[in-house]
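for the recovery benchmark. tokens below, seq after
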């Protein structure tokens, strides 16, 4: 059954191959496909530009300033980043997950899972600032106070509540939570401000600087970041240097410990990996770091990653691998195999579309002609066989002799003008038969009584 099916298929393919119209149609379709593949690869290597969105959270925060600096740096790589303010990291993650944002600068410590979000880079720890009225000297002094944790959509609230719970204080029991945004805080009079204001920012923070200098707040030390770091992987042991926000009076009067929260760049999973690569080039460029007066360590790019790694980040990390690394050699081997396979396929296709080779025309030979000449010689022999001694007249003998001579002459002229014979033995056979017939004629001429014609 399998052989029969194979035979039917081969017959069908042969008929298709012999059909000139079918071959041309298929060849045109294959050509279009190859042109499409070639166009795709040409498109892949062409330079391109991207228009994407990014958020740094609150418009008055340092992240927004960082996002603006990154926007300016990425523009030289063909990536236009449009800034879109949000109320905090949680809102940014939600918008990313919904495809309404492309990039976001968010703080670590947020455990909520979001679909369609990928990790691009870990930048550096932001510092948790507990800005307090001067009479509050330690964590215990927060009891009974109003503590502003920022927007409920922000990440600062999530991190600060964990820190307060670690300290044994709970909302509604030990303190009163407020959720004023930065703009609302800066618009309030001093007597209306909460006693404690928590913000997350690089140091110095513009907002912290304003509250300290305009309203006389100080910076509270968080004495247990190392212990908290053992419990929570996203916590870093950091400090705010003395005199960071004021010299007279000194704020803080000495280096104070606080909790560091890693700042991360994340992206929607559908963002083109090449755009992610370009953004990372801008992020780790010397121009951006000189402008920010900060250095982002590329070796820490994966620290505190909570989401799948972006393909563009993987490509960015692989760019420094040796050219002849094992992975590169495997890729080259696979590419070489692919090229050979494609070339073999094209050769087979070319031969098929070229059509079946035409059958050679039948070979035209003179075998039949020489067979006819041999038959004429045999006819002479037959005439001799039919005659008895003494019955052949001299005229008949002469006629038979001339017939043999004519046959030989015709054969020689034919050999000189036509091609080779399929059976080369016909010529010697003809000449031998003529020679035998002549011998018989001579014999009968000498032995027979020749009668008058």
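predicted aa per position
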């Amino acid at each position: 059954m399998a052989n029969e099916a194979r035979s039917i298929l081969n017959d069908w393919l042969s008929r298709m191959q012999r059909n000139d119209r079918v071959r041309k149609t298929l060849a045109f379709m294959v050509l279009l496909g190859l042109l499409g593949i070639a166009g795709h690869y040409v498109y892949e290597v062409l330079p391109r530009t991207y228009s994407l969105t990014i958020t740094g959270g609150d418009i008055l925060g340092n992240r927004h300033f960082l996002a603006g600096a990154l926007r300016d740096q990425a523009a030289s790589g063909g990536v236009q980043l449009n800034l879109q303010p949000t109320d905090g990291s949680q809102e940014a993650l939600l918008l990313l997950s919904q495809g309404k944002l492309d990039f976001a600068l968010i703080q670590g410590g947020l455990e909520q899972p979001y679909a369609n979000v990928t990790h691009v880079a870990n930048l550096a720890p932001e510092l948790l600032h507990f800005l307090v009225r001067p009479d509050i000297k330690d964590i215990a002094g927060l009891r009974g106070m109003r503590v502003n944790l920022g927007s409920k959509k922000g990440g600062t609230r999530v991190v600060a509540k964990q820190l307060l719970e670690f300290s044994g204080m709970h909302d509604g029991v030990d303190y009163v939570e407020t959720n004023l945004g930065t703009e609302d805080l800066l618009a309030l009079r001093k007597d209306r401000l909460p006693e404690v204001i928590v913000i997350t920012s690089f140091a110095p923070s513009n907002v912290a600087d304003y509250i300290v200098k305009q309203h006389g707040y100080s910076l509270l030390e968080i004495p247990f970041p190392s212990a908290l770091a053992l419990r929570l992987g996203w916590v870093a042991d950091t400090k705010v240097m003395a005199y960071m926000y004021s010299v007279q009076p000194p704020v803080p009067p000495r280096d104070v410990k606080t909790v560091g929260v890693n700042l991360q760049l994340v992206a929607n999973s559908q963002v083109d990996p090449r755009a992610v690569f370009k953004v990372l080039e801008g992020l780790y460029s010397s121009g951006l770091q000189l402008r920010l007066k900060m250095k982002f360590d590329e070796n820490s790019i994966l620290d505190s990653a909570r989401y799948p790694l972006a393909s563009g980040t993987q490509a960015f990390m692989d760019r420094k691998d040796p050219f002849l690394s094992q992975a590169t050699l495997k890729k080259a081997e696979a590419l070489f195999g692919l090229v050979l396979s494609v070339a073999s396929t094209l050769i087979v296709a070319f031969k098929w579309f070229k059509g079946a080779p035409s059958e050679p025309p039948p070979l035209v030979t003179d075998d039949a002609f020489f067979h006819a000449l041999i038959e004429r010689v045999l006819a002479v022999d037959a005439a001799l066989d039919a005659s008895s001694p003494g019955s052949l007249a001299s005229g008949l003998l002469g006629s038979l002799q001339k017939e043999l001579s004519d046959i030989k002459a015709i054969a020689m002229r034919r050999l000189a003008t036509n091609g080779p014979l399929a059976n080369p033995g016909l010529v010697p056979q003809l000449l031998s038969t003529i020679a035998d017939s002549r011998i018989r004629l001579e014999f009968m001429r000498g032995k027979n009584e020749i009668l008058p014609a």
